[in-house]
Design goal:
This protein has 75 residues and is an all-alpha fold. The chain has a domain at 31-67. Helices cover 60% and strands 0% of the residues. The chain has 3 helices and no strands. The longest helix is centred in the middle third of the chain and has 19 residues, at 32-50.
Length: 75
């Protein structure tokens, strides 16, 4: 990934479903508030791992632009 540019290439390979399942399982039994706090902690940990504020900000902007319902399927 080049510095300062968000790379959205899928890189989890065959483990993508495992990551999704772990994320869903982490929320099991949590209240809405606890789930929101877990998401916030996870985002901050991953942002720190990325270590480039500009990339994190671009990711936030792009995620926000998608909207609350996620990407819409083209018909």
């Amino acid at each position: 990934m080049s510095e300062g540019k968000l790379d959205t290439t899928f890189r989890l390979g065959t483990r993508g479903d495992d990551v999704y399942a772990a994320l869903i399982a982490a929320h099991d039994g949590l209240s809405d508030d606890e789930s929101t706090r877990l998401n916030a902690r996870l985002v901050l940990m991953l942002a720190n791992q990325i270590g480039d504020a500009q990339i994190v900000i671009e990711a936030i902007d792009r995620a926000r632009a998608i909207g609350p319902s996620g990407p819409q399927a083209e018909h």
